[in-house]
């Protein structure tokens, strides 16, 4: 675990309370807030024995400046990123076919935060990226992710090509998104089994070695003149098409 930091907002705090209650050290609540969602969070905190301090709005606004704290904050121990061994331990505990998302050289913290939210909503088991030339779990990422950064397993590896081969040895099918003449339509691709989706950064796309280690390439059919999407939007499209197939 990394050092303790304050997280804020009802969605963020409730997500940590639900998935990792042991990480929540204390909470602050704005006096006079009357929201049913807040009542549910406070009831959960009481059940867990978490210390709750009630403070006035001025105090909350001063401590959490420029933040939409929604009258709630919690000091939590934040999880560090997993490494390859942590990922394999996670995969050994998964029931059903693994569903992974690999990000190749995504450097924008706002994109990563948005991707983590989509990944959590789509039921992804882990988001994987590289230690170098990729953004990690920065404060901006955690803020944009609105709680997803605290509950979604986040893995940083030193050698992405090697990891992809190790996943293939576990019979996980690796599907990269790329505008390529060999690519098939996302909507005509079977995404129901053990799967790792690979997304490249907006602009350069997948690096050559990453692309060559994919089992299959797919593209997102588009109707307009612009033939590229922001990586967080593209990830959302691909993840929820995968989820649709996996639920059908």
Walk me through the structure.
By secondary structure, the protein is an alpha/beta fold. It folds into 2 domains: 4-77, Ribosomal protein L30/S12 (60s Ribosomal Protein L30, Chain: A, 2-Layer Sandwich); 84-247, SPOUT methyltransferase, trefoil knot domain (Alpha/beta knot), CATH 3.40.1280.10. It is 39% helix and 22% strand. It has 10 helices and 11 strands. It has helices at residues 10-19, 36-48, 57-63, 84-93, 109-122, 139-145, 148-151, 160-169, 208-212, 231-247, and strands at 4-8, 24-30, 51-55, 72-77, 99-104, 126-130, 154-157, 173-177, 184-185, 195-200, 216-219. A 7-stranded parallel beta sheet has the order 7-6-5-10-8-11-9, sandwiched between helices. A 4-stranded mixed beta sheet has the order 1-4-2-3. Strand 2, helix 2 (36-48) and strand 3 form a beta-alpha-beta unit. Helix 1 packs parallel to helix 2 (36-48) and helix 5 runs parallel beside helix 10. The longest helix has 17 residues, at 231-247. It is elongated and about 60 Å long.
Detail the topology: elements first, then pairings.
Blueprint: E1 4-8, H1 10-19, E2 24-30, H2 36-48, E3 51-55, H3 57-63, E4 72-77, H4 84-93, E5 99-104, H5 109-122, E6 126-130, H6 139-145, H7 148-151, E7 154-157, H8 160-169, E8 173-177, E9 184-185, E10 195-200, H9 208-212, E11 216-219, H10 231-247
Helix pairs in contact: 1-2, 5-6, 5-10
């Amino acid at each position: 675990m990394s050092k303790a930091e304050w997280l804020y907002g009802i969605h963020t705090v409730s997500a940590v309370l639900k998935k990792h209650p042991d990480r929540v050290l204390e909470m602050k609540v704005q006096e006079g807030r009357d929201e049913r969602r807040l009542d549910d969070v406070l009831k959960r905190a009481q059940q867990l024995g978490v210390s709750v301090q009630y403070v006035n709005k001025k105090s909350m606004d001063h401590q959490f400046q420029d933040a939409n704290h929604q009258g709630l904050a919690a000091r939590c121990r934040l999880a560090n990123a997993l490494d390859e061994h942590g990922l394999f331990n996670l995969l050994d505990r998964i029931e059903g076919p693994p569903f992974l998302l690999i990000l190749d050289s995504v450097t924008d913290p706002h994109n990563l935060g948005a991707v983590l939210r989509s990944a959590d909503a789509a039921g992804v088991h882990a988001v994987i990226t590289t230690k170098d030339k990729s953004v990690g779990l920065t404060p901006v990422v955690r803020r944009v992710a609105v709680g997803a950064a605290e509950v979604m397993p986040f893995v940083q590896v030193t050698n992405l090509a090697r990891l992809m081969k190790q996943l293939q040895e576990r019979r996980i099918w690796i599907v990269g998104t790329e505008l390529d003449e060999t690519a098939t339509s996302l909507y005509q691709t079977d995404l129901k089994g053990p799967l790792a989706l690979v997304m490249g950064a907006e602009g350069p796309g997948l690096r050559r070695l990453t692309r060559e280690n994919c089992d299959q390439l797919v593209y997102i059919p588009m109707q307009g003149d612009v033939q590229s999407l922001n990586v967080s939007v593209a990830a959302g499209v691909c993840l929820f098409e995968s989820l649709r197939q996996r639920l059908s």
